[in-house]
From TrEMBL, chain A:
Protein known as: sn-glycerol-3-phosphate transport system permease protein UgpA
Compartment(s): Cell membrane
Main location: membrane
Membrane topology: Multi-pass membrane protein
Transmembrane stretches, start-end: 21-47, 80-102, 114-134, 163-188, 209-234, 240-262, 269-292
TrEMBL record, chain B:
A Pfam entry, by short name: BPD_transp_1
Transport in keyword set: yes
Keyword Transmembrane helix: yes
Keywords carried by this UniProt record: Membrane, Transmembrane, Transmembrane helix, Transport
Protein name, per record: L-arabinose transport system permease protein AraQ
Record-annotated membrane-spanning stretches: 23-44, 89-113, 125-146, 158-181, 202-223, 265-287
Organism per entry: Pelagimonas varians
Entry membrane topology: Multi-pass membrane protein
TrEMBL record, chain C:
GO-annotated molecular function: ABC-type transporter activity; ATP binding; ATP hydrolysis activity
InterPro entries the record matches: AAA+_ATPase, ABC_transporter-like_ATP-bd, ABC_transporter-like_CS, ABC_transpr_MalK-like, ABC_transpr_MalK/UgpC-like, Mo/tungstate-bd_C_term_dom, NA-bd_OB-fold, OB_MalK-like
Gene that encodes the chain: malK_3
UniProt domain ABC transporter: residue ranges: 4-234
Name of the featured protein: Maltose/maltodextrin import ATP-binding protein MalK
Superkingdom of source: Bacteria
Example GO biological process: carbohydrate transport
Pfam assignment, any one: ABC_tran
Length: 300, 297, 370
């Protein structure tokens, strides 16, 4: 900015006025470049015939056609669907159930909450490692139950391509259901005390109070919890790698592992980019309406 | 989380009430076991010898406590071709986390402050655009980022990884600070302005000291996220510069030789310790980070 | 109709004693108003009666039955909260019927009760709306409707009008009074508003710091306060309380106030008071005179035991129907209530007349009324 001495506003004050913008703009530029620029780049690459190296000549939808002709993609999409539905459903159910239980004036609530939530502090890789050990047929649960006298007991989901995806659900629910519990508990606690007193005077028992009064009030908490869990589910990558490595075969492939293997193992940049764009589209379809309503809500 | 003041509501006492309470605590206890057993199994297994693991069962406690597996996991287990244990990778993680957390927190604080307390036209749109970055699936930026790091000469290095974490952590840190600053009265800023303090003066002398809780929440959030990251680590680092999560995965999934479950478990605990410790020490802030933005008000 | 009886009721929250032993006997059909400074325990006392808090010590009887361990739903009470506490996700109709649904009352009876109450409160047109779509006054009516619909024996109100604007508050006050006259139910009502207390109550309980200082009808509370606290709490502007000493001047008993900076005044006590107060020369007392007991000299019908004195006016505060004139005395701003046409500008030397028949004397040490 050139100093304009004839201006009525003193120079120092003018700088002050522009300083916030000066601070924000480089960060904003970073965000523009590294988020939006990169998204555009990926989207563009998905329309080229890039293979091992990026190739910038426009090719139309050919990469998408190749993508949609890959059987593995449908396995990945099917897995994501099954995984997301079960993961979100079970985590919500456990979360709301535990939150209601903890809301019953439990004196050692703090301790219990800490126990329920600690898996959230772990890396998915750690979680995957532990559950891989617990679920392995040779020395894990199966072995444990057999030694307890049930010789015929089989629990080999981890190495069974039809069931391996459920082991990922098991581990993911273990890790994230405490988180759902914490979100719901915070929601329960934000309900106005007087409303609960009114319900007590109206003669509602605890069951009716929760289902008829409290949970309907918590609808926004439900919504945001579902969004957060869905977002976790779509991005799930680490846990799959650590627990099953996408296997047996590619039985537990997910869009995120699919993209990664096409990008870094098979060096098919075009297909990888196309699959990344599909993931982005899914996330946008879920998150943008949510963000929009959240932002509108926080504005006074 | 504030506690309701409903403890006092008079309730029907009697056997039914007693039964319900018993059932309540039983259920809570069962779930405690559900969450704790994997941790117990992990610790127990890491303290057993391989023979004991084969002979015993999953839930049995170690008979002969031995720290051999720990020693091996820390300093001599093979990660890929290198057999120095997790130690070097642990320090990689530290070298990555400290600068990445510090820088992204400071920048996020400045950003949030400028966007809320010095509102200028377009601030809301800029915020929305930055915030969106917190939600993108990172797969969509993996390829261009890998190339950009290559161009910058940072490919496969820890500074490169720090850069990635700073950039993609900014959306979260900005969000946390913005949400905090929205609750700070603008009157304080105006009063300070009248007293002659400027943009940075107000930030460092007034706003930052007030926002200590937000700083703690943000630091813990970033710390946990970056410590636990795997995707960026595996995509942007190679061999010697891997963070500990990637190294752990390599230890566990090395298919050569005998499978040493006790070493795997010890390695998993070592990799988990930095975040678990912070969780135990500052759990409340951790939870606040988790629920930031999820529950309004 | 039920009576309510509290016997030595105490309530502790952890180590803090909030209700410190209250005895109270409320007759059937009475309208009792609880007043007291913020934090003195009014809401807590109401919650104890409702069963929303468990009492620490003592007994509560409703309708002759001991209810210490009875849950709120079985106490046959209804309550209106300050925030109204309407269920935000339910329609007005479902807000009103929720209590009946919880008690399994047949649908037909519910509908009849809703019809009756909504006509009474004129909220028929709102029945299918949600609370978020109602104005403050409408919400208040719905909250009343929810309480009234079950026809309980006892109503508890915790500052039900304090979130309304002044005009609506006066309207609703009148309606509550009419409702009480019509239904004749026992009501316990907490308020901060003195006019509400004076107009609604059959008896007022003045609370302070977990104790009840006085429990009596409004006239007695106003004219015969038992101590300085009650005297100072009721009345707006509050009673003037001038510290002074009992003296005998020329065979007559006076309270001399003020000095040494300002010229002392020797208020001549009427015979009834002097009988009780005199004899102890130099006793420290506090002389209480309500603003309406001090007026411009000669503007009221003459009476016995008037005391006339002169002071310069320090502040003039017109309120509309009356004008408050303040003067400095005994280290306070003493307020006198005069007709607007008698007011004079600040600084003028003004002739005041005090009606000593209405004067109250308090012991300075015990703060009790003499
Ligand atoms: N659940 C509780 N735990 C601890 N202290 C409490 C609790 N509820 C009330 N108190 C304390 O008890 C005292 C009386 O509170 P209460 O709400 O009865 O006052 P109040 O007379 O209704 O005041 P207000 O006029 O402001 O409504 C206060 O000092 C308050 O801090
Ligand atoms: Mg109160």
């Amino acid at each position: 900015m050139a100093p304009r001495t004839h201006s009525t506003v003193p120079l120092g004050q003018k700088i002050e006025l522009w300083l916030p913008r000066f601070v924000v703009s480089p960060l904003f530029a970073l965000s523009l470049f590294f988020v939006y620029g990169f998204i555009l780049w990926t989207v563009y690459i998905s329309f080229t015939k890039s293979g091992v190296m990026p190739n910038y000549s426009f090719e139309g939808l050919s990469q998408y056609e190749r993508l949609w002709a890959t059987p593995r993609l449908y396995v990945a999409l099917g897995n994501m669907f099954v995984f997301s539905a079960l993961f979100i459903g079970i985590s919500l159910a456990i979360g709301i159930f535990l939150a209601i239980l903890l809301d019953q004036r439990v004196r050692i609530e703090g301790v219990i909450r800490t126990i329920y939530l600690y898996p959230m502090a772990l890396s998915f890789i750690v979680t995957g490692t532990v559950w891989k050990w617990i679920l392995n047929p040779g020395l894990g649960i199966q072995n444990f139950v057999r030694k307890a006298g049930f010789e015929e007991f089989t629990f080999d989901w981890l190495v069974n391509s039809d069931y391996a995806i459920y082991t990922i659900v098991i581990a993911a629910v273990w890790q994230s259901s405490g988180y759902a519990m914490a979100l719901f508990l915070a929601g329960l606690r934000s309900v106005d005390d007087e409303i609960l007193k009114a319900a007590a005077i109206d003669g509602a028992g605890s069951f009716r109070t929760y289902f008829s009064v409290v949970l309907p009030i918590m609808r926004p908490v439900f919504l945001s919890t579902v969004i957060i869990l869905a977002h976790l589910a779509i991005k799930s990558f680490d846990l799959v790698i650590a627990l099953t490595g996408g296997g047996p075969g590619y039985a537990t492939a997910m869009p995120a592992t699919f993209m990664y293997s096409f990008a870094f193992q098979r060096s098919e940049l075009g297909v990888a980019a196309a699959s990344a764009v599909m993931m982005l589209a899914t996330v946008i379809a879920i998150v943008v309406p949510y963000l929009y309503s959240e932002l509108r809500g926080t504005k006074q | 989380m504030s506690r309701n003041n409903l403890g006092g509501i008079v309730q029907q006492k009697g056997t039914r009430h007693l039964m319900m309470r018993t059932l309540l605590f039983l259920t809570l206890g069962v779930f405690c076991l559900y969450y704790l057993i994997p941790l117990i199994v992990m610790i127990a297994t890491s303290l057993k010898s391989l023979e004991e693991i084969r002979a015993g069962s999953l839930l049995s406690l170690p008979q002969d406590v031995t720290f051999d597996a720990w020693a091996k996991a820390w300093s001599s287990a093979c990660v890929g071709v290198r057999c120095d244990g997790l130690k070097p990778f642990f320090w990689n993680s530290v070298a990555m986390v400290v600068p990445a957390v510090t820088i992204s927190t400071i920048l996020g604080a400045l950003n949030g402050y400028a966007l809320t307390k010095w509102r200028f036209p377009g601030a809301d749109i800029i915020f929305a655009l930055i915030l969106f970055g917190a939600f993108i699936p990172f797969q969509v930026i993996l390829l261009p980022m890998a190339r950009t790091l290559g161009v910058l000469g940072l490919a496969g290095t820890i500074p490169g990884l720090v850069l990635v974490h700073v950039i993609y952590g900014l959306a979260f840190t900005t969000l946390f600070f913005r949400n905090f600053f929205i609750g700070v009265s603008s009157g304080i800023i105006q009063a300070a302005q009248i007293d002659g303090a400027g943009f940075f003066g107000i930030f460092f002398r007034i706003v930052l000291p007030m926002s200590l809780p937000a700083v703690v929440v943000t630091v813990i959030w970033q710390y946990t996220q970056i410590c636990n990251d795997f995707l960026f680590g595996i995509a942007f680092t190679v061999g010697d510069s891997n963070p500990v999560t990637v190294a752990l995965n390599n230890v566990v999934n090395t298919s050569t030789g005998v499978k040493e479950y006790n070493v795997d478990m010890a390695a998993a605990i070592i990799a988990a310790l930095p975040t678990l410790a912070v969780y135990v020490i500052a759990g409340a802030y951790f939870v606040r980070g988790l629920s930031a933005g999820a529950v309004k008000g | 109709m039920s009576d309510i009886r509290l016997e030595m009721v105490k309530k502790n929250f952890g180590a803090t004693e909030v209700i410190k032993g209250i005895d109270l006997a409320i007759d059937p059909g009475e309208f009792v108003v609880l007043v007291g400074p913020s934090g003195c325990g009014k809401s807590t006392l109401l919650n104890l009666i409702a069963g929303l808090e468990t009492i620490t010590e003592g007994n509560i009887y409703i309708g002759g039955k001991r209810v210490n361990d009875t849950p709120p739903r079985d106490r046959n009470i209804a309550m209106v909260f300050q925030s109204y506490a309407l269920y935000p996700t339910k329609t007005v109709r479902n807000n009103i019927t929720f209590g009946m649904v919880s008690r399994g009352i047949p649908k037909a009876d519910q509908d009849a009760a809703v019809a009756e109450i909504s006509t009474l409160l004129q909220i028929e047109r709102l029945l299918s709306r949600k609370p978020g779509q109602l104005s403050g006054g409408q919400r208040q009516r719905v909250a009343m409707g929810r309480a009234l619909v079950r026809k309980p024996d006892v109503f508890l109100f915790d500052e039900p009008l304090s979130n309304l604007d002044a005009k609506l508050r006066i309207e609703m006050r009148t309606e509550i009074k009419k409702l009480h006259q019509r239904l004749g139910k026992t009501i316990v009502y907490v308020t901060h508003d003195q006019i509400e207390a004076m107009t609604l109550a059959s008896r007022i309980a003045v609370m302070d710091n977990g104790h009840i200082r006085q429990f009596a009808d409004p006239k007695t509370i106003y004219e015969d306060p038992v101590d300085l606290f009650v005297a100072g709490f009721m009345g707006s502007p509050p009673m003037n309380m001038m510290p002074g000493k009992i003296r005998t001047l020329g065979g007559q008993c006076v309270v001399s106030t003020g000095g040494p900076e300002d010229e002392p005044l020797d208020f001549l006590l009427p015979p009834a008071l002097s009988e009780r107060a005199c004899g102890q020369e130099g006793r420290d007392v506090i002389l209480g005179l309500r603003p309406e007991a001090i007026f411009a000299a000669g503007t009221e019908l003459p009476g016995a035991n008037r005391f006339i004195f002169e002071r310069p006016i320090s502040v003039v505060e017109p309120t509309g129907p009356d004008t408050m004139i303040l003067f400095h005395h005994a280290g306070l701003d003493v307020v006198a209530r005069v007709r607007p046409e008698d007011a004079r500008p600040e600084g003028t030397l003004f002739m005041f007349e005090a009606d000593m028949e209405k004067a109250k004397l308090f012991d300075a040490k015990t703060t009790l009324r003499i």
